[in-house]
Amino acid sequence: MKNVKCKLSILFIAIVLLAGFGLVSWNKSYKSEEEKIVKIGYLAIAGALPLFIANDQGYFKEGGITVELVQFNTSNEIAIAAALGKIDVIGIGATNAVLDASVTSGKKFEAFATIGYVKATKDRKSTDALIMRNGQSIFDIKGKKVAFFPGSVSRVFAEIVFPQNGIAIDEIEYIELPPSAWKTSLDTGVIDAVHVVEPFIQILLADPNNTVLIDGYLAEVMPDVPLSAVWIVDGQLSKKQERKIVIAYKKAINFVSEDRDTALKSFESFTKMPAVLYSEIGLNKWSMMDNLDSQKSLKSFVELLDTRGAIKDIPKSYIWID
Fold first, then answer.
1. Using one digit for the tens of pLDDT, what is the confidence trace for 109-148?
2. Distances (CA, A) of 100 to 81, 89, 127, 153
3. CA-based angle 73:74:76, to the nearest 5?
4. What is the spatial distance between Cα 301 and Cα 304, in angstroms, rounded to a whole number?
5. Predicted pLDDT at 224
6. In a designed cystine with 54, which of 78, 198, 202, 252 is the match (CB 3.0 to 4.6 A)?
């Protein structure tokens, strides 16, 4: 009987110890999740505005998420960093660059919001433009040096948009430059024209020698073209953390529509633009992927990229679903 009691006592102690160990392990796991700093890569362009707002308005903190915003010069740099596990979220990334990084690395990236580029209407300004120095019409661009954002997708757009406007692609000298080099290169005559996104439209048009040749250049390919998106890097965060990031971003999009003036002030800390410039920028059309039309738009664009050979392949999965 004593042996039985002794064995039961030992078993009870063992269970308590195992349970305690499990609780400690769970607590450590819980704390590590709550204390993890979520790294979000971004470019200092208008398409990243909801990210800036979510940070400035405290939406990440509301969800118990601590973030570190990491600036990059190009979408290719962001995609490579994501593939290497150096960031957890791609705050803005060109669709083609992210999908290629996914195919090459085997890492899954899932878009939870698209960043659409639009044509000007009576209610909104365009979000990108082809701008030329000392030019008046699109035909003045023949034989000139024209700069584009680095990446194969820029070539795809050029091969569609220029012929639609009466210019063969081989009638221009095609050059790739990152955003940081656009203004200086145009000012110094290294290039004659450049395709830019906001806020660079306002920056370049502050010089009266610069003229818009095609307003809403990207949207000539398809309406509200989802050239970029916001992507979750699979395997870096828990599903709970992913949801919190998505919720914060959705709140930021709503904030833009509710209070444009305050929203635009978020540019000041990230782009160092004076108010007279950032108050005039055209805003992108941001859409969450819980919208079926957004999913269809992104899928159509991905198919276009694939047909044009602008991506290596279409990943099996690239849309974030809760």
1. 999 999 999 999 988 899 999 999 999 999 999 999 999 9
2. 13, 16, 25, 11
3. 140
4. 5
5. 94
6. 252
Token pair for 148: 């584009």
Angle at which helix 239-258 crosses helix 49-56, to 10 degrees, equals 100
pLDDT tens-digit series, residues 33-92: 667 899 999 998 889 999 999 999 999 999 999 999 999 988 999 999 999 999 999 999
Comparing C-alpha atoms, which of 85, 101, 87 is closest to residue 51? 87
Q: How far apart are CA 133 and CA 194, in angstroms?
A: 9
Q: What is the DSSP string of 62-84?
A: HTT-EEEEEE-SSHHHHHHHHHT
What is the three-class DSSP state of 301?
A: helix
User: Cβ distance 146 to 195 under 8 Å?
Assistant: yes
Sign of CA dihedral 131, 133, 136, 141: negative
Average pLDDT, the chain: 88
With 70 as the cut, is the pLDDT of residue 26 above it? no
- Asked if 98 and 79 count as a contact pair (C-beta separation under 8 A), the reply is yes
User: Encoding tokens for residue 7?
Assistant: 């064995």
Domains within the chain, CATH numbers bracketed: 35-117+223-307 (3.40.190.10), 128-220 (3.40.190.10)
Q: What is the value of pTM for the model shown? A: 0.83
Cβ atoms of 313 and 96 closer than 8 Å: no
Taking CA atoms, 88 is separated from 45, 52, 91, 231, 301, in Å, by 20, 16, 9, 9, 24
Judge whether residue 4 has pLDDT over 90: no
Among 197, 156, 83, 174, smallest CA distance to 302 is for 156
**How distant, in Å, are the alpha carbons of 1, 22, 26, 202 from that of 12?**
16, 15, 21, 72
Residue matched to tokens 């992104």 = 298
Supply the Cα-derived Rg of the chain in whole angstroms: 24
